[in-house]
Amino acid sequence: MTERTAGCPNCGAEIVFRWSGAVQTSCPACGSVLVRHDLDLTKVGSVGDVPPSMSRIQLGTEGTYNRLPFVVVGRIIYEYERGHWSEWHIRLADSSSAWLSDAQTEYAITKQVASPGTLPPADTYRPGQPVALHGAQYSVGSVTRALYSGVEGELPFEYWDKLQVIFVDLKGTANAFATVDFSETPAMLFAGEYVTYDDLHLTNLRDESIGGGPRATSIKGLNCPQCGAAIELRTGALALSVACPSCAAILDAQDPNLAILQEHQERSGRVAPKIPLGTTGNFAGERWQAIGFQVRGIRVGGTEYNWREYLLWNAERGFRYLTEYDGHWNEVAVLKGAPSEGGGSAGVAYNGEQFKHFQSAVATTQFALGEFPWQLRTGDHVDADDYIAPPHMLSREASADEVTWSLSTYTAPQRIAEAFKLTTPLPAPHGIFANQPNPKAGVARTLLRAFSVFTLVAVALMAARFALARNDKVFTENRRYSVSSGDTAAFVTRVFALDGHTSNVEVRIDTDLSNAWAYFNLALLAEDGSVGYDVGREVSNYAGVDGGESWHEGSPHDKVVLPAVPPGKYYLRVDPERDPADVNTPFSYTLSVRRDVPRLWPFLIALLLLAVPPVLAYFRELAFEFGRWKESDHPWSTTDSGDDDE
After folding, report:
1. Looking at residue 318, what is its pLDDT?
2. pLDDT at 160 over 80
């Protein structure tokens, strides 16, 4: 698009318009704020001293968004309790315009919604509150009361005489973002999304070594007003508070004289950081510097649990954290958007993953060192909720005016030590942490798959055994036990042949005993006297009625299987015995012998043994989960063991 020019009505300097839709601009020479009527410019005010930008973005910076090139043509600056932030007005290649928000290196691009409908009043929004606007679902992230600090460049509306402005930032699922701007009546709605520094492909950036940018040379020559120790601010103008490394006084980093915000911290809470402040680590090819350290804690059931947090800084990607508790480390990134409901009872869903609620508590800052991009005090507290889906954990922290979500990823201490090249080994993890991956997880499933394969093999072998077994009846004889017939003495059967290979032999006894028993002394003997097998079997069969209920015990049948009997000619020696009270009561019985009989129980025992490994693995996995949840808000047992495993 061809640039157009006009003369400043105040000083005559040439004014260049990069965007034809500009309504307001400022003169780079005299600082006049100019309102445009076609190409006639009217001075309506003066810019004054524009606060320095903490970003490398400047007027004329170029980039791309959704594959459309853009150029930065204007800027509105706001001041709030965390410093300054800029709303950069960008002109896209399709002649539309949008806003690039840059607050503490968090980037978002939004466009004004032309007809947002009636927006709720500013005083009705509360952090964490669900909001439906313009057909989209959001939750309130923060309510910010800011002061207008200045403008420069081209804007799509008149904006130069504001005082206090209220903004309500809304977070949707994934990276959805919106802002309700109450600087005008009616309020304006801007909707869009969070973006990353890399997404924008920015060029023509401000020299990072000058102007207070994020990589500007660290401020030197500052000294703690309480103890005189040297103070170095690594993030420059982004730092809002700093804790003296010597006396631990908390100081106002925005004050040129480092005004004291908190004179001292309890010595009992002082802890030396395991990652020295100023140390630089490398994660996934990106360099992060440890700039802040704090000890935070919660109290649950009368017991205090403290953990350590390290604030990391990267000029383009902003801030992230490392946390450590009892040797358990997590990499933590603040979420741009917010999770959605739908994770089941008291759960949330994020990025396609379901998270279960683990714990709610009040988290309190107990000790701090280094610099922070917020006004920090010991004793600061937030309402905290943790949701887990190991190795991840979603944490929600809510204060009176802001709700933030962060995503933690469980990390081995070796990775932390290697990333920061620590010379002192980090302690090994102790106990079980909330989002620690279960080392037994998946083992039972793997073994169960193997068990399924072995079961199929066992069933196939069993089917083959039953199909191929000879199961030949090689002998049968009917006998009657009767004192009157003299058939009570021991006897031997005729000889019968066991042909084929060595296999088992089944000897079966079928009787007509009723409310009686008999005992059989049996011997399977080779005709040539080479081998013999002696067994004794009792057959008993009783039945009756007791108290109107019928009962039955025993069976008139019995059998015994002799394993690995070689082929040959055999006979049975049989010696039956009776209860003396029943000796005069005759009964009949049949002896039968089968060769190579298939049996089910060996296969059942094999399956039982094969099932032992997956069952044990499952109970080990279950035991780990029991330990994880026992001190959460949802323990699997109400019994308090008193152990500190969390």
Report:
1. 85
2. no
